[in-house]
Amino acid sequence: MPVSVPYYFIPSTASTASPLIRIAHRPVSQSIRPRLSPRYITAVRSSSLRNPHYQRQRRLYSMLYAAKSHPASKSSTSASSGITTTTTTSCGTTTTTTASSSQPSEKLIFAPTSNSPDPSGGAIQYTQSTLSLSDLSPSPLTQFHTWYASALSSSVYQPETVTLSTASLLSGRVSARIVFLKELDTRGFVIYSNWATSKKAEDVSTNPHAALTFWWREVERQVRVEGRVERLSESESQVYFDTRIRGSRVGAWASEQSKVLEGREELEERVKKMERRFEGVESIPVPPFWGGLRIVPDVIEFWQGRESRLHDRFRYTRQEGEGEEWKIERLSP
Ligand SMILES: Cc1cc2nc3c(=O)[nH]c(=O)nc-3n(C[C@H](O)[C@H](O)[C@H](O)COP(=O)(O)O)c2cc1C
């Protein structure tokens, strides 16, 4: 495994009720079939089911009837703040369905323009900056470092916060979660985690490809990274592990990340056990199942928000061969 010295440590920074609702308010434990209205039955017979009212009614009936008729199912319905929630438990799986009583449609959110200053209700526009080819460094890692520094000086809240996406093979199912970028070095982006029990661990054990997505709202910038992953050595991981507060070091030993817990007490018991194990030990070793993962990029995209969604985008693609050669292309927004 290649060993490289990090040259940059990432610091810690701080309508009226729709028919759907009327149906959903009924206790679903009661018989459903006898409640089909004569109008509904007439509609079925006259094949007028293209009417969205009847389509919605039919969908809900079939959903509730399927839940009720299963021998191991239990349902309950509650309504608060204009949202009706139907909870169905079947075969140990709980399903929650929500519907809004204040909206004529089934959409709970539609075309939000949250915080937009536009009095006519238009979406927020990105106008802070522009990005041209001449602004870019030949190296995407240097370019990232420049943008990271600029995010820090622009008071972006925790710019090291990043979404890590992974996918498992053969299923191809993708999963994503937020992590913290902890190091940037000449090879790539380093994050730290559990590599035994977490979902990301499961994914990268079958598929070495991963992606990172940064969103820096205050500067209206996004950076996307795609690449292959490699584990850091134990000694490299120890260097970062030693910077963590004692509670987090003990916590890394105690937590079987993403495993199901019977309750919070189970976790706290595990923490106490580890505290006893490391009592009086100043220098706690990094757990063998925990450490750094470097995403070695082959594609990095820099995205600068512009007005009317006509954003500036530049993609670096690593070129085959010796050395650090990158092709840079402008992309359509
Ligand atoms: C702001 C923030 C930062 C996080 N940083 C990390 C991190 O650096 N490493 C980590 O393993 N989990 C981190 N987490 C927790 C992950 O999002 C996730 O819950 C955990 O890694 C288990 O995910 P997995 O089972 O999909 O692998 C963070 C969560 C948040 C909200």
Task: Explain the overall architecture.
The strands form 2 sheets. The protein has a 6-stranded antiparallel beta barrel. A 3-stranded antiparallel β-sheet has the order 2-3-4. With 333 residues, the protein is of the alpha+beta class. The protein contains 8 helices and 12 strands. A hairpin with a 7-residue loop joins strand 11 (312-318) and strand 12. Mean pLDDT is 81; it is low at 1-7, 15-36, 40-54, 67-75 and 77-83. It is globular and about 60 Å long. The protein has helices at 19-24, 38-45, 52-69, 140-153, 199-206, 234-241, 246-254, 264-277, and strands at residues 8-9, 73-80, 83-90, 93-100, 161-167, 174-184, 189-194, 209-216, 221-231, 290-304, 312-318, 326-331. The structure holds flavin mononucleotide (FMN).
Compact overview of the structure:
This protein has helices spanning 19-24, 38-45, 52-69, 140-153, 199-206, 234-241, 246-254, 264-277, and strands at 8-9, 73-80, 83-90, 93-100, 161-167, 174-184, 189-194, 209-216, 221-231, 290-304, 312-318, 326-331. The chain is an alpha+beta fold. Residues 161, 175, 177-180, 191-194, 198-200, 257-258 line the site of flavin mononucleotide.
Distance between the termini: 38 Å
Anisotropy-based shape: globular
Give me the side-by-side strand order of the main sheet. 5-6-7-10-9-8
Class of secondary structure makeup: alpha+beta
Helix content: 25-40%
Bound molecules: flavin mononucleotide
Q: What's the story with the biggest beta sheet?
A: 6 strands, antiparallel, barrel
Tally of DSSP β-strands = 12
Name the poorly predicted regions: 1-7, 15-36, 40-54, 67-75, 77-83
Order of helices and strands: EHHHEEEHEEEHEEHHHEEE
- The averaged pLDDT comes out at 81
Fraction in beta strands: 25-35%
